[in-house]
Amino acid sequence: MGVLEFFKDVLTEPALLMGLMAFVGLVALKKPAHKIMSGTLKPILGYLMLGAGADFIVLNLDPLGKMIEKGFNIKGVIPNNEAIVSLAQKILGVETMSILITGLIINLLIARFTKYKYVFLTGHHSFFMACLLSAVLQTAGFNGIVLIALGGIILGAWSAISPAIGQRYTLKVTDGDDVAMGHFGSLAYYISAWVGSKVGKEEESTENIKIPEKWGFLRDTTISTALTMMIFYLIAAIAAGPQYVSTLSNGKAPILFALLCAMKFAVGVTIVYSGVRMILGDLLPAFQGIATKVIPNAIPAVDCAVFFAYAPTAVVIGFIASFVGGIVGMLILGVLGGVLIIPGLVPHFFCGATAGIYGNATGGKRGAIFGSFVNGLLLSFIPALLLPILGNLGFQNTTFGDFDFGIIGLVIGKTYEYLGRAGVIGIAIALIIALIVPNFIKTKSKVLNNVTEEDEEVLNNVYEEKQKF
Fold first, then answer.
1. d(Cα 425, Cα 414) in Å, to the nearest integer?
2. Which phi-psi region, left, alpha or beta, contains residue 177 (left: φ > 0; alpha: ψ -120 to 50)?
3. Measured torsion, CA atoms of residues 85, 87, 92, 95, in degrees rounded to the nearest 10
4. pLDDT at residue number 276
5. Beta partners for residue 120, in sequence order
6. Who has greater pLDDT, 97 or 174?
7. Cα gap 146→464, rounded to integer Å
8. In three state form, how does the secondary structure of the chain look?
9. Which pLDDT band, with edges at 50, 70 and 90, does 91 fall under?
């Protein structure tokens, strides 16, 4: 059990997974020892920096969420991945760990032997999905080896298929950089990109917004983020009242506390950007070794925050629009008599920001706004639908926050409800077929990334331009 726990800890640490992949790639490229050392450490340190920034963001979002609940008298369920995973681990720890290891092995085998070349590197999200699968499969009457095998197949398959579904959008976001979305909010991001393509023009990017010279300081992402969040925090602090805010601030002046939290939030975002640059600077070159020597044409699927640096303005717009969408969704649920899903600031920041980036890539400013607003609605409705399924296991007070968790949980839960255990086994079989069939079909792209001829031509031009510098 001790060895299994050690491997579980390693496999749930994205930083170590990225370092391991970079190490394998650099060894495959036969780089000298000192370059292998630095090339392995930098992605690890970069992801730890990203994680430190994310933790700092979460820490300073917590009082904002509490002030909003108090100030506007909102009561309901706040989706939180970490909270429900900690509850589930108490009764499903062994199953979750076994599904995680099985799923990661299957993902590597899929990348090696099928046209789905995506290696999912966001270990903590794989862990969360393993936890969800262990819960819903147990509810569906599975246990032991069958539960682990089914969970591992679904986790491994979805880890390869979900990046492929929207890779054509991801390539637009990254201007052709060979990374993929490795985050289980992915379907909502692709929906945001689709919405963006219908409501706006990609050339009207948020990053091209013209700012008068006297407002030039707003081009600094740290400054613009801090100013935006100061407004949020001040409104929430005033609504909650000085007496309540004092209970959060350990006696510090309420307005000063709110302003400092807003500025710390901006610092957290800046730390995330620095970590992202360190990851991309060393992981992508090292991954060439894996792509050429170990798993031909392999593409790393990475955390959503890695994409923040591609469109910093869309990050702020996406967060705000998604949060507004979450409030609207909560109000609609209230009118319909459903459980109120209170907009969680953590999922709305990370998922909303990413949805804004994807919406911007296809529809510019309007795409970022409307795409992430739709994301906010989805983050209200899907957790509300998932809640009854998880309630069967005694998790009535919380639910998963990100979109893919809700979709996978609902598909398995509803399939079992209508078709029984045979229907759930059918889902696993359908995923296996989806992975195998393309191997026998002639496709233009080696990595099955859904790129049209027009997209491919544009991306080739971008790549050629980059090679000049």
1. 13
2. beta
3. 10
4. 73
5. 301
6. 174
7. 49
8. CHHHHHHHHHHCCHHHHHHHHHHHHHHHCCCCHHHHHHHHHHHHHHHHHHHHHHHHHHHHHHHHHHHHHHHCCCCCECCCHHHHHHHHHHHHHHHHHHHHHHHHHHHHHHHHHCCCCEEECCHHHHHHHHHHHHHHHHHCCCCHHHHHHHHHHHHHHHHHHHHHHCHHHHHHHHCCCCCEECCCCHHHHHHHHHHHHHHCCCCCCHHHCCCCHHHHHHHCHHHHHHHHHHHHHHHHHHHHCHHHHHHHHCCCCHHHHHHHHHHHHHHHHHHHHHHHHHHHHHHHHHHHHHHHHHCCCCEEEECHHHHHHHCHHHHHHHHHHHHHHHHHHHHHHHHHCCCCECCCHHHHHHHHHHHHHHHHHHHHHHHHHHHHHHHHHHHHHHHHHHHHHHHCCCCCCCCCCCHHHHHHHHHHHHHHHHHHHHHHHHHHHHHHHHHHHHHHCCCCCCCCCCCCHHHHHHHHHHHHHHHCC
9. low
Tokens of 192: 């945001």
Q: What is the pTM (predicted TM-score) of this model? A: 0.79
**Res. 61: pLDDT tops 80:** no
Tokens of 244: 């309540």
* Block residue for tokens 């792509």: 291
Alpha-carbon gap, residue 413 to 126, rounded angstroms: 19
Does residue 267 register a pLDDT over 50? yes
- In contact, 139 and 410? CB cutoff 8 Å: no
Q: Is there a contact between 60 and 264 (Cβ–Cβ < 8 Å)? A: yes
Residue at 350: amino acid letter: F
Distance of CA 66 to the CA centre of its chain: 24
pLDDT of 439 over the 80 cut: yes
Q: How far apart are CA 201 and CA 214, in angstroms?
A: 28
Which amino acid, 214?
K
Mean pLDDT of 16-40: 86
* Residues 151, 157, 160, 161, Cα dihedral to 10°: -120
Cα of 1 vs its chain's centroid, Å: 30
pLDDT digits (tens, 9 = 90+) for 228-249: 788 888 988 998 899 999 999 8
Of the candidate ranges 105-109, 136-140, 382-386, 389-393, the one whose mean pLDDT is the lowest: 389-393
pLDDT score recorded for residue 82: 65
Distance CA 157, CA 149 (A): 12
At 83 the pLDDT is 63
* Rounded percentage of the chain residues whose pLDDT exceeds 90: 37
Round to whole Å and give the CA distance between 467 and 120. Answer: 27
Could you tell me the two tokens for 248? 């959060």
Higher-pLDDT residue of 25, 220: 25
